[in-house]
Amino acid sequence: MYEKTFPNKRFKHTINFLEKHIPTSKSILDLGVVNPFSEIMTQHGYAIENTKGEDLDTDTSNITNSKADVVTAFEIFEHLLSPFTVLQSIKADKLVASVPLKLWFSSAYRSKTDMLDRHYHEFEDWQFDWLLEKAGWKIIDRQKWTNPTKKLGIRPILRWFTPRYYIVYAERVSQ
What we know:
It is a single chain. This protein is α/β, with parallel strands linked by helices and 175 residues long. It is built from 6 helices and 6 strands; from the N terminus they run H-E-H-E-H-E-H-E-H-E-H-E. Strand 3 (70-74), helix 4 (83-89) and strand 4 (94-100) form a beta-alpha-beta unit. One of its GO terms (biological process) is methylation. InterPro entries: SAM-dependent_MTases_sf.
């Protein structure tokens, strides 16, 4: 169903991880606007609602008012100034979240044309773990994967061996 190209490889890993931990009977609040992966979740039988494009750093009302069983956040926390506030505002007791990992050989992503499409954070795995634990989440499972390209050069070769994405399944331990 998915080729081994970006973003399809990432989507395949993400849906497999989601299906491992979350049954389709659970309702999902997906942080971020409707996107290609939201559509993949729907195609796989999940009932999801998305946030509406509000600035989650300053407006968490859609998160705090949600009655969803699970919150998903796929490549969203790196765009926020304060992911801690968002993580604390989640009322659901289950979270599946992924982030791009900080690469020592590549600077953080910064779009030259879109002010919103920039990474304020790129985490190391231990930093994301610490953030989740401090916000009241216990990590139950985690996985990393690479994002190789077919380009030539030192950095493309390093991408074959260096994990780029990190995904976790966590459960709320305190509110």
